[in-house]
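Quick one:
INPUT:
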């Protein structure tokens, strides 16, 4: 006699490997694939993989913020979580000392300057920084070297897709 209430699942869904994969949790050193949405406290989304290729990272290789790595450890495939990261641990505090004025004559004369414009400036050590023009006067240009998200708390919504 056949049990009318019984559901028979394909062997592939009940195999030991499939169950182990579903139960696996992320560990330090694992490579993972995930979707994320990054937003400010006032819900402005500034980055997302929702309609793009998922992010693939290896934990322990400093490919993302340390607090995100910590939050991913222990997650299972299909699990989602939100991580709130305070400004100091995200893009740092907003520092007034990173705002300075330059003489216009110090800048290339062929560059048309506008407020809000981003400029790449070479440092004495050869490294480059990106600055934003915040004010232009007759003789000077005020620039801000803070990251655009400096001083802002950030929330990351994460969905773990794969563990390699």
């Amino acid at each position: 006699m056949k049990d009318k209430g019984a559901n028979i699942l394909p062997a592939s869904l009940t195999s030991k490997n499939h169950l182990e994969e579903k139960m696996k949790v992320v560990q330090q050193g694992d490579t993972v694939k995930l979707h994320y949405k990054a937003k400010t406290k006032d819900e402005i989304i500034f980055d997302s993989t929702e309609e793009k290729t998922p992010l693939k990272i290896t934990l322990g290789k400093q490919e993302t913020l340390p607090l995100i790595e910590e939050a991913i450890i222990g997650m299972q495939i299909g699990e989602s979580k939100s991580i709130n990261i305070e400004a100091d641990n995200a893009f740092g505090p907003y520092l007034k000392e990173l705002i300075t004025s330059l003489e216009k004559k110090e800048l290339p004369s062929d560059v048309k300057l506008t407020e809000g414009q981003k400029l790449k400036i070479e440092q004495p050590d050869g490294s480059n920084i990106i600055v934003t023009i915040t004010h232009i006067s007759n003789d000077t240009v005020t620039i801000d070297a803070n990251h655009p998200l400096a001083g802002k708390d950030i929330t990351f919504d994460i969905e773990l897709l794969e563990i390699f």
